[in-house]
Amino acid sequence: DAGVIQSPRHEVTEMGQEVTLRCKPISGHDYLFWYRQTMMRGLELLIYFNNNVPIDDSGMPEDRFSAKMPNASFSTLKIQPSEPRDSAVYFCASSIGGPETQYFGPGTRLLVL
Amino acid sequence: AQKVTQAQTEISVVEKEDVTLDCVYETRDTTYYLFWYKQPPSGELVFLIRRNSFDEQNEISGRYSWNFQKSTSSFNFTITASQVVDSAVYFCALSETYNFNKFYFGSGTKLNVKP
Fold this sequence. Notes:
The complex is a heterodimer of chains A (113) and B (115).
Chain A: E1 5-7, E2 10-13, E3 19-24, E4 31-38, E5 42-50, E6 53-56, E7 65-71, E8 74-79, E9 88-95, E10 103-104, E11 108-112
Parallel strand pairs in A: 2-11
Antiparallel strand pairs in A: 1-3, 3-8, 4-5, 4-9, 5-6, 7-8, 9-10, 9-11
Chain B: E1 4-5, E2 10-14, E3 19-21, E4 24-25, E5 32-39, E6 46-52, E7 59-61, E8 64-69, E9 74-79, E10 88-96, E11 102-105, E12 109-114
């Protein structure tokens, strides 16, 4: 079975550009999470969805960040405009029936120059 | 305040040694879940175990074992007879059911297992 799929795996962009990260959760999972991992702050929950509806976005750092889940099999995390301090690994995770057991994607390594 | 504390930033052991990774958590919730994840050098996060707050029974899975003690708010992870492939960063995490199921990760413990 396919796990959580994230694309791209690596992204290098220049400051000010728009960045879109993509995630396909495990089929049948009704929860989807976006995390950011940095050396300074560790793993942080940015936002999560239940049945495509955003439930908690209190972890989204600022208005430059937005996330959508137009359907059960696809979500995006967008940063516009990007800044060097956004450089991090962004993980997507999904779970079924509750957020208790999450399965993570391989992550997207973002570098903003 | 830190919800999940992993005081050991980095541990180095020699292969075949046993090693315990500490995790201390803080919550007011009566129903919560605790987790361990492994992040190998390749970067992905691998789910290892989930424990709910009502089940304090220790668990063993192969060379891995977990000691959950509510009295000390700890959920420690022991690897017996460590192997080089165990080298990774290990994260402890807490999920609080009252707090909209928020997920909190510890800062991680980097385990180096040397041959």
